[in-house]
Specification:
Length: 291
Amino acid sequence: MLRPSIPSPGTALRQQFAQGTVVLPGVFNGISALSATKAGAHALYISGAGVTNAYLGVPDIALASLNEFAAQAAAITQVAPVPVIADADTGFGEAWNVVRTVLEMERAGLAGIHLEDQVSPKRCGHLDGKAVIPSEQMQEKIAAAVSAKRDPNFVLIARTDARGVEGLDAAVARANQYVEAGADAIFPEGLTSIEEFKIFRTQVKAPLLANMTEFGKTPLISVAEFEEMGYEMVIFPMTAFRVMLKALDESYALLIEHGTQAGFLDRMRTRAELYATLDYPQYESETYRVG
């Protein structure tokens, strides 16, 4: 049901990853957040690609605005009683833009965000042709983000895309520079093997977030393997989105071909199941009295 964001969600997330690897399924709107939490998720990740693809129907090339990202984040945190972190792209600009990004995203009830060191407009982290800004410029963005925190436990994650541009050693060096600038955790994007994840773990003394996306440069690695390596967080940004999109494509094609949905009712959530996900009966039973 609608509820205020949990108190100090950043504290809640930090408590979780202090106990072991946190699994963060990717969500992109309120109903996906409800589905994930009712399936047992203890934390969530708002995928920038998911929000951009679902809301605007365009590629993840920095076409969604800060206000659109923050609005989706607020809708999700109002219904999901777990800590939520979000993609914040490149911070939507330079240092002062990053300050506003942190203010708006924290106001939206998030536990934290990640900022990346790509140039803008950015590219998907698993595509070729990326470019990164100078590390000193990213350090300035991180310092600006730290200064904007109202809750000191808001988790600021610095993502580096340097592995695919400058090589693994440069990516590790950037990660350590970002920790020195004040980042609470590091997100190494586009690593290509378990061995590279292990190198990051041994050479970066900060909490680490791994991206377990599909069909990219990173092989599929289990949460158990990441836990053994000592990673604090693993995100699955587009897993549910891709499953959903395949189901959408198939259902629209069948409906248009046959002119009826009768042949695929067994693939649907029933009305009762949808209402259960939405907590519909609780909304109907809630009463508000004055005095």
